[in-house]
Amino acid sequence: MKTMVTLGEILIELNAVTSGPLRHVNYFEKHVAGSEANYCVAFVRLGNNCVYIGRVGRDEFGHNAIEWLRGKGVNVDHVKFDDNPTGIFFVQRDYPVPLHSESIYYRKGSAGSRLSPEDVDENLVRGGDLVHSTGITLAISSSARDSVFKAFSLNGNRSFDTNIRLKLWTPEEARTTIMKLLKDYPVKYLITDVDDSRILVGESDPDRASAILREYAEVVVMKQGPKGASLYHDGGKYFSPGYSVPVEDVTGAGDALGGTFLSLVMSGFSMEKALDYAIVSSTLNVMIRGDQENLPGLSEIEAFLKEMDKK
Amino acid sequence: MKTMVTLGEILIELNAVTSGPLRHVNYFEKHVAGSEANYCVAFVRLGNNCVYIGRVGRDEFGHNAIEWLRGKGVNVDHVKFDDNPTGIFFVQRDYPVPLHSESIYYRKGSAGSRLSPEDVDENLVRGGDLVHSTGITLAISSSARDSVFKAFSLNGNRSFDTNIRLKLWTPEEARTTIMKLLKDYPVKYLITDVDDSRILVGESDPDRASAILREYAEVVVMKQGPKGASLYHDGGKYFSPGYSVPVEDVTGAGDALGGTFLSLVMSGFSMEKALDYAIVSSTLNVMIRGDQENLPGLSEIEAFLKEMDKK
Amino acid sequence: MKTMVTLGEILIELNAVTSGPLRHVNYFEKHVAGSEANYCVAFVRLGNNCVYIGRVGRDEFGHNAIEWLRGKGVNVDHVKFDDNPTGIFFVQRDYPVPLHSESIYYRKGSAGSRLSPEDVDENLVRGGDLVHSTGITLAISSSARDSVFKAFSLNGNRSFDTNIRLKLWTPEEARTTIMKLLKDYPVKYLITDVDDSRILVGESDPDRASAILREYAEVVVMKQGPKGASLYHDGGKYFSPGYSVPVEDVTGAGDALGGTFLSLVMSGFSMEKALDYAIVSSTLNVMIRGDQENLPGLSEIEAFLKEMDKK
Amino acid sequence: MKTMVTLGEILIELNAVTSGPLRHVNYFEKHVAGSEANYCVAFVRLGNNCVYIGRVGRDEFGHNAIEWLRGKGVNVDHVKFDDNPTGIFFVQRDYPVPLHSESIYYRKGSAGSRLSPEDVDENLVRGGDLVHSTGITLAISSSARDSVFKAFSLNGNRSFDTNIRLKLWTPEEARTTIMKLLKDYPVKYLITDVDDSRILVGESDPDRASAILREYAEVVVMKQGPKGASLYHDGGKYFSPGYSVPVEDVTGAGDALGGTFLSLVMSGFSMEKALDYAIVSSTLNVMIRGDQENLPGLSEIEAFLKEMDKK
Amino acid sequence: MKTMVTLGEILIELNAVTSGPLRHVNYFEKHVAGSEANYCVAFVRLGNNCVYIGRVGRDEFGHNAIEWLRGKGVNVDHVKFDDNPTGIFFVQRDYPVPLHSESIYYRKGSAGSRLSPEDVDENLVRGGDLVHSTGITLAISSSARDSVFKAFSLNGNRSFDTNIRLKLWTPEEARTTIMKLLKDYPVKYLITDVDDSRILVGESDPDRASAILREYAEVVVMKQGPKGASLYHDGGKYFSPGYSVPVEDVTGAGDALGGTFLSLVMSGFSMEKALDYAIVSSTLNVMIRGDQENLPGLSEIEAFLKEMDKK
Amino acid sequence: MKTMVTLGEILIELNAVTSGPLRHVNYFEKHVAGSEANYCVAFVRLGNNCVYIGRVGRDEFGHNAIEWLRGKGVNVDHVKFDDNPTGIFFVQRDYPVPLHSESIYYRKGSAGSRLSPEDVDENLVRGGDLVHSTGITLAISSSARDSVFKAFSLNGNRSFDTNIRLKLWTPEEARTTIMKLLKDYPVKYLITDVDDSRILVGESDPDRASAILREYAEVVVMKQGPKGASLYHDGGKYFSPGYSVPVEDVTGAGDALGGTFLSLVMSGFSMEKALDYAIVSSTLNVMIRGDQENLPGLSEIEAFLKEMDKK
Q1: Which residue intervals define the domain Carbohydrate kinase PfkB in the entry (chains A, B, C, D, E, F) (predicted)?
Q2: pLDDT tens sequence across E186-202
């Protein structure tokens, strides 16, 4: 079993029970989310370990997050309780764009944003087989950003998902910070998509963007929404197509893909096969509300693929 | 800002929470509806004013309707309270025809059907930039029908949606009454569809039906369900295609289209662009239960179209 | 097994899922109700037969009513389908009076109100061990009223629940009609309460009202809400106290009491014991939404009483 | 009206309100199900009679099943109450395979599995126009299996749905038992699908499998999931294509098809037309949770087909 | 009709659908709330006008608040849209203290807290018959606090509810600020309770606390939870007892009492009668989730009292 | 921190969303339950450790149980996965006895009932500060019963809750088995109630029953339902009264009491104070559906008691 060390903010998600503008949504459904937490659960679901570094509030939502993740097998022994509130967000679905979701954050000054370099236990990070974070952690606060830089300085086996959220910072800030991170600490696995690539390297063509990004990454996984995802590494390019399914909420689908991919690769799968399997994770993920409930184990992925083969 | 004066019945909609025959539906969700009210809210959502002429019951549902519409910005100062009950209807979804909805009315003798010519304030109607009603108001009672004739006699800027409901009258009654209205008071904007055209002018081909109907209307908008809608006026024909989205309930989609179209045209949009935008309104409308909750403003329509452009 | 023949209107009940004014209730729960139908199900639940005479709409709600009652064991072979809609009503709970419920009817011109003397099969009524109806059936239409008079003329074993609903007629109309029925056709069992007694005989004291009413009835059951109920017959007076339980909806509690009482008396229970048991039925009835779902059988009533004995 | 006599187990279905793995499903919706019960209700819905032979528990779920089926018009006078519990199952939807459902049974030792030859009333079975059962009844217990053999020995007008459930027996057991039944008692109507055919005759090509199976059956209906179904009989082959609709739960769709087909054929429809209509039943069936709520009558099927013709 | 001018923050309330610790609550129900908004709606419900001064976010929740209040008849023309998010709070019910509720705020830096003296239109405030605010507005920000001081300096007809929320400030801060306000600007109506009195004047005995507070207020209304409330003014003391009803959520009950009391007094009711009626408002208020949905009009209060008289 | 080792069956609870007979309950809410699991969570909630010995199915419900308990901090490392299904039960509430609940089990042959002496790790049990089980574990199978006997033979610090469930065994079987266990292995803490005492020692008077039972137990806790509970030990008798609160579901209240009592006593609280606190746990427990969600920590219990002191 391999161990991934992850830095980020765990959030409580309030997902609209009915779609449309939130002003007319009467009921919300609670889930545990946060990109890095999603990665962790996906990673653990495929048979490896994940250690979480971060903070939650000393409140009901903070305990909610910890109990849920511990239940899913994530190592939360290093998560700290902080006096600030646990960050939350609401999900508005299918409005104004059908099949898209919008996040409305209440996370400014949250416990999670207080993640700070002192939380980054050096031995813990050095002992991991992989250290992972995302653009969100870079964006939420300077102390959180510094924490990622510190962690990346401690372990050369790095993974990064660009995950640019324009409600948290400007494209300019995103580009400057992420590119600095990648320059200072080139990664093994870079997970990104065409929209983020346009912001980072001014290029949204998957092939051309990846060519540029591969200067900073051994492996680039380029997500392309429902179409599928491409993989670029020394062994060449590989495209894995998506599956067409009814969409309930796309939030977290990219994390499902990334976490599954990393875990399987760490377990020794070929990257191509890992991506095919990861596409299944993200496919199942969009069929429900909630980011972690539908994350599949190996046998579920294989059951899915076996059924698709029949057709 | 332009002002539309509207005559009709506001209804309370009880929409089936689960689809299938109503005998097996256990829960119903309440919404404010009624074709003309839907038009009004769509019209207001796009930045213009709408004055409503009609009656609701002096009961909880009547207050419900008034508070909701006032909240949405509709001018309800001229709605009267009547001793009869507020009309209601149930929506049965996906049965027996998938993706179709059926309305079961409890509106006979309702407050709304007591709309009468004395409710039609002459100065109010004369002062409007547009006076609007539908075939439903013609059908619900003779006094309501007379009210429409009176209002149409007072203001030459008229709009009419044929909206033939065969649970309210026979095809013969519908044809006679609507065609008399159109002959007596030709309209600027006629919104209709192929089924209604067959009843009214014996022709369901969009082009041929519109050619006949344009004798009574400067502009004909011919709705064609999920396929889209066509526009006919002196400037020629224009077809705007629909978008394929998951359907929850189609009730009110035509009103969304009509109200959005009229409001944008009144605001100075070209009719072609107004129709393209109106199609977005009706597309969003079918994705939820309720007729007015998903009616978009300008920025929402543009966000939708921008996303579609990407694809 | 004894057979009761019942005349009345089966209604579909839309009960507010949350309490408060209906304008703010978003969800409604569907049930089958109607006073005489409630009586029938209670009667059958205690081991006897009930034949229903009435009409429902040729619509989903009508089929709903028939399938439900047939499922509960009521004989619905004589219920006719009518072209008018099945009557419905909404229940508003706890507002403006806590623990009280208000019925909002949509039953004017309903199928059920078309009950007519021609529906009253003479042999069927004559063959019953008891013929039963209520003040509601007298109020809904003249043809329904005539049907009750006809049925009561055919069989001397009569039961009547006054059930005056002031939304259906005036106190004056109620008094005139009910007292005429009782004078023409004195009953064996009269079920009433103090409010109805005040209207009928100008007296709301249970003892004094019953003394007057016993001129028209061998047995008077005087309901007194949560306090309990009194029984008056040649054998003297008997009071059975109520039980204090959390109240969800009181609608139908009186019918539960009446139907249980009649069925047990017909089965040979002493009237005093039958009333004690009937109080249990009405107690369970107020704990849920819906009028018929909680109607208990004999073993449930005895389990209830055994538990109360412990205390 | 024709009468079908059916043997099997009525189950209570607990269907997941949200899709995904059951560990994360918080709410379940209760329905009455069981393949043979589904057949019965479909059969009755199309205007014929169905007599059910089987057992339910002397518990709330058992009464639930009886009241529901009696309400739907099924003859349940011959269903026995048994001291064992009514069998139940949970439905997990869309996981791990989108648009598929998985049944999790709690039926071992259930009341329904105690069906025994003594329950099979000889005159009742002989008097039926058709005697029907499925592979499930063969699998649940030896006494249930013997009951089917006994019933099939009593009446030559037999119908059988293979319905192999690999959670109840092995492929080997299924093949041995079903083929013995078919050899001993060739049937008039055999309803099956390609997966079951592979197990039974080692052939999943519809044409070739049917050719083999027709040695034991006058008519073979070969279900092919959403694609449609084929019919094979002396009059040749006929294929009826499926309709593409949003899928909520596929459980029971095959029974809807089979029950509708048999009822219409018994009513004198051509088998080809019966199959076309049966496809409508199964199409409506997958759009909701619950196996019997959406079963259509003749007028609903025709409304569906009329609407499809328009397109 | 009298006009009250109110300053404060409108909040979106997310009320737990099930009681217990929020970590185990899966669904939340959305309502519009905020103490001053509650006051406004109660005030309007009793037939007077209320003008709201405050800010909401330029987001869905902000529009939600505005549309709802406008629908209820509150004058929201002076509410400004602000770039910060609309404040929200969660309600945890019955845990750890039965029948109590706890508010968990996400309102730091909210749009509402940006209320500033520049928002306080001098003519508007001067023109009101009463200017009202609460301790909450004093606590949320210094600019909001200054706004209250400014408004109170402009109009001598002042009303104030102490409403100390210890999650927003310390007892020391609350005492200092509120007492300064009352010293600088003595009020006509002071609404408070025993807990707040202990903090403000070190005295929780209703009589003694009111004696001290009356130095700063012509009238003191001392709320005492479910027990009722006392009134102190030159005319003496009056105690109005509470009613015992099932409690769903006590949030907002004090505002219901205060708003109803003020509106009726402004309409010319005696203060004693106004308090009796106000107790009804707060009684109905605790029976539901949501702070404004159950606010009664005059006829509802009288129906409540009439029923209580019967008992 | 002290460690309790517990043996028993973890169950999935399907609690009726609406009260009344299950035949009319349409929705069920899922929870993790089982008496010993409830004890464990209560024990952990108060700051100590609990190790669980038992089996769950290799199915979704089994994973559900493990993830939930792990999340709550229970040590589930010794729980085994078994090929049989995870046991479940349904909860029927308020029928036929108000405020009571009835459990309907589907646990015969369940994974949990396969608990066997080989699962009882000797070092684990010897290392615990307390070993605990209940009468339920004795009743579910002979191997489970033997496991309890084995565990009790390994560690003298024993605790036992009689928890007699008459759906699992006869009074005679219960008495014989439990009394043999207590004779062979006298316990430190015996938790029981008056109904169980009547079965075990023919005495339901708390004092007299406890006097007899104290021959087998240093400490007897005698639960008396909503009235409270009594404590008997060498230090004398102590009675702690219950609190009157609205009851949603009483299932699990006794376990809440027992687990809280044991944990606090192990932490060094006086038994009297521990019982007072334990009463708070059981009080909160009856206010919700679910057995473990409302289990309070120390600060919650103290907040509850502080509020009660005010009154």
Answers
A1: 1-296
A2: 999 999 999 999 999 99
